[in-house]
Design brief:
By secondary structure, this protein is an alpha+beta fold. The chain contains three helices and six strands; from the N terminus they run H-E-E-E-H-E-E-E-H. A three-stranded antiparallel β-sheet has the order 1-2-3. The protein has a three-stranded antiparallel β-sheet with strand order 4-5-6. This is DUF2442 domain-containing protein.
Length: 91
């Protein structure tokens, strides 16, 4: 199996959802991955309903309300969107 096949077959998203703090993706091979929501500033203005209106793509997920998406590979590699800033801790 080539690495390309691994990225497209076994890492294919089969479900996705957002909590108040994280983006979660369930993969075809049974694994799950979660990344902080703040990694994706383009999601910042979406309601919880819009955050969970996610389209599954072969290599990632897409939010129609934001007209943006992310790849599963970028989640695994820890690649944040440009402009992502960690929120300040509550005092």
């Amino acid at each position: 199996m080539t690495s390309l096949a691994f990225e497209t077959d076994e890492m294919r998203p089969v479900k996705a959802w957002c909590t108040a703090d994280e983006v979660h993706v369930g993969l075809a091979d049974g694994r799950s991955i979660a990344t902080p929501l703040w990694w994706y500033p383009f999601l910042g203005g979406l309601s919880q309903t819009e955050l969970n209106e996610i389209e599954l793509m072969y290599e990632g997920i897409w939010w129609p309300a934001a007209d943006e998406g992310i790849s599963v590979k970028s989640m695994f590699l820890g690649l944040k969107s440009p402009g992502a800033k960690r929120p300040r801790a509550a005092a």
